[in-house]
Design a protein that fits this description.
Order of helices and strands: EEHHHHHHHHHHHHHHH
Number of strands: 2
InterPro entries: TPR-like_helical_dom_sf, TPR_rpt, Ycf3
Structural class: mainly alpha
Strand order of the largest sheet: 1-2
Keywords: Repeat, Signal, TPR repeat
Pfam families: TPR_1, TPR_8, TPR_9
Distance between the termini: 46 Å
Strand content: under 5%
Number of helices: 15
Length: about 280
């Protein structure tokens, strides 16, 4: 696979590749990045009050076990209790300063809190402790990607892939980088791999659909967007992407309906608002 060609004009919007992929109609949407996305590899039940209580009981019995704090910190993170998560990861690191996964977990919480400098430092430390830790490369790459440091992001993602990662985020995010630079065939291949690793997640379908659309393949794009909606009907970008296909086909009524649904889900989503203004009859 060839290296990505980047330029100073490469930019990211809402944590995604730039959306100027079509000449006639602006590309409606790309998938947003959220804690739910990054924590997809953590069991949903982990953030439950019951699970947190169970982990707290373990800590009461074994107060000097660093992995217990690391697990409860992950549960707090899944529940959105970031301050509590940080306290547990701090404790895990104090008990075991060589815990590379605790540093990576804390880095993720720092990123959610917008403290990217601290997140980057923790990812660097995790990698220094374990140079084969794919999760840390994937996490650091996302900080690089969202700050426009595309070459560094690509290098980290390729390192994770070389380590035979099974984390779909590595392929999905590399696909976004290829998509942003117009290398859509490479993007499609990476999104397809992400889908094979996480077939029930909608993000890979949305990403691949956008690159199909950029190549003029409306049928495959439409199929992917519809699959994304079927998997999770509460993502505004999926509906806006579907609307874009309707719009390109000249069906303004259906396009407006899908754009309206996207705005119901996210009233601040600009591509849906602009699309609805174009298609409202």
């Amino acid at each position: 696979m060839t290296s990505i060609q980047t330029s100073p004009s490469l930019r990211f919007r809402r944590g995604l590749a730039a959306c100027a992929l079509l000449a006639l109609v602006p590309l409606a949407a790309c998938q947003s990045n959220s804690p739910a996305t990054d924590l997809s590899r953590i069991d949903t039940a982990q953030g439950s009050a019951e699970n947190i209580a169970s982990l707290s009981a373990v800590i009461q019995r074994t107060p000097n076990e660093p992995e217990a704090y690391n697990m409860r910190g992950s549960a707090y993170g899944r529940a959105g209790r970031y301050a509590d998560a940080l306290k547990d990861f701090d404790k895990a690191i104090a008990l075991n300063p060589r815990s590379h996964n605790a540093y990576a977990n804390r880095a993720l919480i720092y990123r959610y809190m917008g403290q990217n400098d601290k997140a980057l430092a923790d990812y660097n430390q995790a990698i220094a402790l374990n140079s084969s830790y794919d999760t840390a490369y994937i996490g650091r790459a996302e900080i690089y990607r969202l700050s426009g440091r595309s070459s560094e992001a690509l290098a980290d993602l390729e390192r994770a892939i070389q380590l035979d990662t099974t984390d779909p985020r590595a392929y999905y995010r590399r696909g976004l980088l290829y998509q942003a630079s117009g290398q859509h065939q490479y993007a499609i291949e990476d999104f397809a791999t992400a889908i094979s690793l996480a077939p029930e997640a909608p993000y890979g379908y949305n990403g691949r659909g956008l690159s199909y659309l950029a190549q003029g393949d409306e049928e495959n794009a439409f199929s992917d967007f519809n699959t994304a909606i079927r998997l999770d009907g509460n993502i505004a970008e999926s509906w806006a992407n579907q609307a874009l296909v309707y719009e390109k086909r000249g069906d303004k009524a259906k396009a407006a309906k899908s754009y309206s649904r996207a705005l119901q889900l996210d009233p601040d989503y600009g591509p849906a608002r602009d699309g609805l203004a174009r298609t409202r009859v």
